[in-house]
Task: inverse folding
């Protein structure tokens, strides 16, 4: 990718120009005499053109004009410089008998040392190119991925949901499956919008006991429905829907929300990612445990400790709300995280993936890997937490809407 930057009009550059790309910001001191155009090239671009091009992604530049296909020539720069010098010449010839404001305008400032200027300029271009390369390499979403920096309003979502299906098309039932250390009320915001748009939206209880039996529980519930179903899972609920949907032809779409999507033979516990707090701290630091009736040998119920829940699980929620959610969390059996998956419904069922970049329970890197493996439609949400679905229901509902509207 090549970015061409040129001055947006006659006259000198402003002292500071802000370059924003994909939410990141690079600021540089631009020399007014040396840099009238800047071309930064990313060698890994898919564009093979030798000239400058503007990347089609959202690019916001303050005070700078992005020029497709061209850069400023040396002749144009020199001509522009001569025009500026001619414009200030009369001021420099101003005499001592001029009015005070003319005297002030004619003040000449010391000319900086050119050796320092060129050193600064060289450092600027190298650092800018490196920064842009880092942003493109680390911050750019993969192909087929879209970012969701701003969620649509509820009224816009309702309008989309009520108009995207063709007349006479049967609306699917949306079944929402919660994850570990949460409950069905996690989906309150999403469910309210879906129901306001005329959809049958149901958030069912996930037993959180064993991946095989939890999946059978949800599958039995789905079999009571005869129309199309969009199945949505959060966190461990993603592993459940991956197995529950296997063999059910009425499940038309899977939606993963900060969730796991295991392959056959994988366990939920293997998919948190190396950077997950679940892998960086000892179990005794993460959980307090309890026994439960009928537990398999060696299994126990896990509850997140308050500091872990508030700081890592629900980090984008107000502390008071996070503490209330911690106090009402559903415990999850250790067996839920160690039982291997027996199916991978994402191999045959279209899927959508919502990924929060600040998820510290299942890392964004791990989710991206699973999403690409499933060939999912990926939406990356900047920020959030593992519980983005609670404070940002519209962002999640927008992805569910995409899955619903794809059926038209």
Result:
């Amino acid at each position: 990718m090549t970015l061409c930057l040129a001055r947006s009009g006659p006259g000198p550059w402003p002292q500071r120009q802000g370059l924003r790309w994909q939410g990141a910001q690079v600021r540089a001191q631009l020399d007014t005499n040396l840099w009238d155009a800047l071309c930064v090239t990313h060698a890994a671009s898919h564009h093979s053109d030798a000239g400058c091009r503007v990347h089609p992604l959202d690019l916001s530049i303050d005070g700078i004009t992005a020029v497709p296909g061209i850069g400023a020539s040396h002749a144009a720069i020199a001509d522009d410089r001569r025009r500026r010098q001619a414009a200030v010449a009369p001021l420099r010839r101003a005499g001592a008998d001029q009015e005070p404001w003319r005297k002030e305008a004619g003040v000449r400032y010391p000319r900086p040392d050119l050796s320092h200027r060129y050193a600064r300029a060289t450092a600027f271009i190298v650092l800018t190119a490196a920064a842009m390369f880092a942003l493109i390499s680390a911050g750019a979403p993969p192909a087929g991925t879209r970012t969701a920096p701003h969620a649509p309003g509820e009224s816009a979502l309702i309008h989309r949901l009520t108009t995207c299906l063709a007349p006479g098309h049967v609306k699917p039932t949306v079944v929402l499956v919660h994850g570990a250390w949460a409950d069905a009320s996690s989906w309150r915001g999403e469910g309210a919008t879906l129901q306001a748009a005329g959809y049958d939206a149901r958030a069912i209880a996930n037993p959180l006991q064993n991946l095989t039996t939890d999946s059978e529980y949800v599958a039995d519930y789905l079999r009571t429905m005869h129309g199309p179903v969009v199945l949505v899972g959060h966190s461990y609920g993603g592993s459940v829907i991956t197995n529950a949907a296997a063999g059910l032809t009425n499940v038309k779409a899977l939606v993963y929300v900060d969730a796991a999507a295991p392959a056959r033979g994988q366990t939920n516990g293997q998919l948190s990612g190396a950077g997950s707090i679940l892998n960086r701290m000892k179990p005794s630091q993460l959980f307090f445990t309890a026994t439960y009736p009928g537990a398999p040998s060696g299994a126990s119920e896990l509850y997140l400790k308050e500091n872990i829940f508030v700081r890592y699980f629900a980090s984008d929620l107000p502390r008071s709300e996070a503490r209330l959610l911690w106090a009402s969390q559903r415990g999850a059996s250790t067996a839920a995280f160690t039982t291997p998956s027996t199916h991978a419904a994402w191999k045959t069922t279209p899927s959508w993936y919502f990924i929060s970049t600040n998820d510290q329970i299942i890392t964004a890197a791990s989710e991206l890997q699973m999403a690409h493996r499933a060939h999912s439609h990926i939406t990356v949400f900047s920020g959030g937490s593992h519980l983005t679905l609670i404070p940002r229901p519209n962002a999640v509902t927008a992805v569910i809407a995409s899955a619903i509207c794809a059926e038209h």
Observations:
- The two ends are 36 Å apart (CA to CA).
- The first helix runs from residue 74 to 92.
- The mean pLDDT is 77.
- The longest strand covers residues 251-259.
